[in-house]
Write a structure and sequence with these properties.
Elements (H helix, E strand, L loop, with lengths): L1 H29 L6 E6 L7 H17 L2 E6 L2 H10 L6 E5 L2 H7 L13 E9 L2 E6 L10 H7 L5 E5 L4 H16 L2 H5 L1 E5 L3 H9 L5 E5 H8 L8 E6 L11 H4 L2 E2 L2 E2 L4 E7 L5 H15 L2 H8 L4 E5 L1 H21 L3 H4 L3
Length: 345
């Protein structure tokens, strides 16, 4: 009997060791990115826009710091949000995207199931301050602040501004429109109307075809058209949502365009987003890696080529920041008229 008890105890001891070793090995695999193949979904289907370019540059530097393989997957906003709210929290899939992550929900384009509360906010990595407006080079105004004077001098004129519904361009338009309403007559503001556009290429074509007067895009995507003398495609910048280092184009602030009397600036903030229950050890690794690359001279130089800038915030600070930014944008959106009411009929 004693022999049976001794053998049973020995088997239990071995089993406990095996279980402990198995748990330790699993825990080790879960607690590090090292050696993983990581998929980074982004909220754009384009491989030529800022979403892809920033994710690609950041991923290349993060891969070295995390000692893993990272591949960017341009799946589009709806698919990216669905992925990050349904994927396993094992570190194999993460999301990197800008303010459309929460703006889509605020504008009603996406359900509340995709709100920030339904996934984890990771660290911030990069800002893109280059969003703004451009017109044909021969437009009868030099910037957005001159548009009201043009409309006052031309009572039958309207100015058609092309932007996309439910995104950063709508934020830029609404802020400008509210400034017009606060500082000029209803006659002036009512003659600034929206034309719904799609991609940057689509909006450029709309401008060249005289189907709009001013378009919204990124500075880098339109720069070539401001440097040409070809009258068919030549453009000029009308104002950016934020100041850009090394760029001599006025921002809303420079032009005196504010919101409710307060300075208005808007840069796209690119953050890493993670599924719920994501291991804290992996979040810690991301925080350290993102902080490290943000001071890497090569990383900063690569961003500077496209007028982007490193903007590291750890996951805790990034969450506070993006929640506060969302609250501010929510006030702007709720107080603004529906885009449907501003679209040219």
């Amino acid at each position: 009997m004693k022999r049976v008890i001794i053998m049973l105890a020995a088997l239990l001891s071995v089993g406990a060791c095996v279980f402990a070793n198995g748990t330790s090995e699993s825990s080790t695999k879960m607690s590090t990115f090292k050696g993983k193949n990581v998929r980074v979904v982004i909220g754009s289907s384009s491989t030529g826009g800022d979403s892809y370019l920033i994710a690609d540059i950041t991923s290349r530097y993060l891969a070295k710091e995390l000692d893993c393989n990272i591949k960017v997957d341009a799946v589009g906003a709806a698919a990216a949000l669905d992925t990050i709210t349904t994927t396993k929290p094992d570190g194999n899939t993460i999301m990197m995207f800008h303010d459309m992550t929460y703006l889509g929900v605020l504008f009603g384009s996406y359900d509340n199931e995709y709100s920030l509360e339904n996934f984890i906010v990771g660290p911030e990595v990069v800002q893109n301050p280059t969003s703004g407006w451009a017109s044909k080079a021969n437009a009868p105004y030099e910037n957005l602040a001159e548009v009201p004077a043009y409309l006052k001098a031309n009572p039958d004129a309207i100015v058609r501004m092309a932007c996309e519904a439910g995104g950063v361009s709508q934020i830029g338009f609404v802020a400008y429109y509210e400034w017009l309403k606060a500082n000029y007559s209803d006659d002036i503001s009512s003659r600034v109307v929206v034309v719904i556009g799609g991609s940057t290429a689509d909006k450029c074509q709309m401008l060249w075809d005289d189907n709009c007067d001013i378009i919204f895009a990124d500075y880098t995507s339109l720069l070539q058209y401001t440097q040409t003398t070809d009258p068919k495609i030549a453009m000029k910048f009308m104002g950016l949502l934020d100041n850009v280092d090394g760029v001599d184009v006025p921002s809303y602030t420079d032009l005196g365009i504010d919101f409710n009397g307060n300075e208005f600036r808007f840069s796209k903030d690119f953050l890493i987003y993670l599924p719920k229950d994501f291991p804290q050890a992996l979040i810690d690794e991301l925080n350290i890696a993102c902080k490290t690359i943000s001071t890497n001279p090569d990383f900063k130089a690569d961003l500077k080529k496209m007028y982007y800038r490193p903007a590291f915030k750890n996951s805790t600070d990034a969450k506070t920041y993006i929640y506060n930014k969302r609250a501010t944008m929510d006030i702007l959106i709720k107080n603004a008229p529906s885009l449907d009411d501003l679209v040219q009929q």
